[in-house]
């Protein structure tokens, strides 16, 4: 039988320690660690009392399986990320930095649903009712029949919710401000956040109302984060963006009722968040076509292609260890591309600082950006301007080979739609022929098929800085 060991849990951040200590190493809080015996934590009361188990009925995998009914908000970018609308009885957590626009988004969602005749309750634990009203007025939503409350006690909220018609949507803004009588620690601590969330989740499941919890995430993860409730909710969405740019991205990180790779793109305007149905156009506006070091990458976000510009700056370094600065991409992936350039193409960047930026503050998670990154790097180093109407996508392997990536046709179609004339892609002959026979068509734009990273470098070098400038002058 496994040995029973007690665990010591920090009540402020949820970190588990093997022994008691005065200060939590994880969050720095003093005197926040309490002993919890594993039996008491893991087993429900019924099991502890020695009750004999009751056999449960087992079911087969096959069976009647209706897709869950959904309530569409008709804010399409939001519906796309949730997987087609809000599922009754589900609980969503929307996390994001303070000030990113979570309250704005949710008041818009609430108002849209309320206008469609659904009962919507918006509980703000952070702002007074007047403040919420003021915002709604600014957004032109003041006449929507949303029911408002400014409250932080979960028992009171649950009692309020169980009165009258079951709401379709309940927004709790934010979970960190909620507290329950059943836990003793201060609002915002792990125990309070967890117990409050539990009560609200139980309400959602019992009543069949959808609940959206708002959670603030600070960059350094200081406050007992909403992370501790991530495993309890049905979906976790993150709302991202940076202060310097107007657009915001809603991304699904976990979704029991839909895909997790979809994004919703919004733009923060004076009149709240407006949807951006074609993000590529937004990300590619203000392009600087005549400068070396930029390449357009045809990426995929879920089912949607997104074209973004990748900018690289390679300059001789004055430091002992050259700088590698990356915004919007994985730094270790950049190191890999640099290493392959050095080992397979003889391009030495050890004496150069490398700065890489995904334009517009977008964040790329796909390895398919390798080729575009390499093109931008080589272009910056050589001073050769890449043709402004080319797009790049493909993965680079450690051997220096260029590897095909999924969704090629969708990427090419989007590039063609946006007026690009040529795509530089890995040799996907075998795959493509198969694809072509099925689709029965040639690619929408001509392809520049390359087999390896060396081919790409040779192609860019052939352009040379002078030819490139002439090409720009002619254009
Ligand atoms: P908010 O929704 O309060 O953020 P959160 O709930 O995530 O903390 O949004 C705050 C920011 O949004 C604030 O800095 C101002 C800006 N904003 C606009 O630019 N336009 C608008 O119409 C609104 C309502 C807010
Ligand atoms: Mg807010």
UniProtKB/TrEMBL annotation:
PROSITE patterns per UniProt: RECA_2 (PS50162)
Keywords of this entry: ATP-binding, DNA damage, DNA repair, DNA-binding, Hydrolase, Metal-binding, Nucleotide-binding, Stress response, Zinc, Zinc-finger
Motif segment (RadA KNRFG motif): 254-258
Binding site for ATP: 96-103
InterPro entries: AAA+_ATPase, DNA_repair_RadA, P-loop_NTPase, RecA_ATP-bd, Ribosomal_Su5_D2-typ_SF, Ribsml_uS5_D2-typ_fold_subgr, Rubredoxin_2
Region called Lon-protease-like, residue ranges: 353-475
UniProt xrefs under Pfam families: AAA_25, Zn_ribbon_LapB
Domain RecA family profile: 67-217
SMART domains with a match to the protein in the record: AAA
Family assignment from sequence similarity: Belongs to the RecA family. RadA subfamily.
Domains as described in the record: The middle region has homology to RecA with ATPase motifs including the RadA KNRFG motif, while the C-terminus is homologous to Lon protease.
Protein function: Plays a role in repairing double-strand DNA breaks, probably involving stabilizing or processing branched DNA or blocked replication forks.
PANTHER family the record matches: DNA REPAIR PROTEIN RADA, DNA REPAIR PROTEIN RADA-LIKE PROTEIN
Official protein name in the record: DNA repair protein RadA
Native source organism of the sequence: Ancylobacter oerskovii
Gene: radA
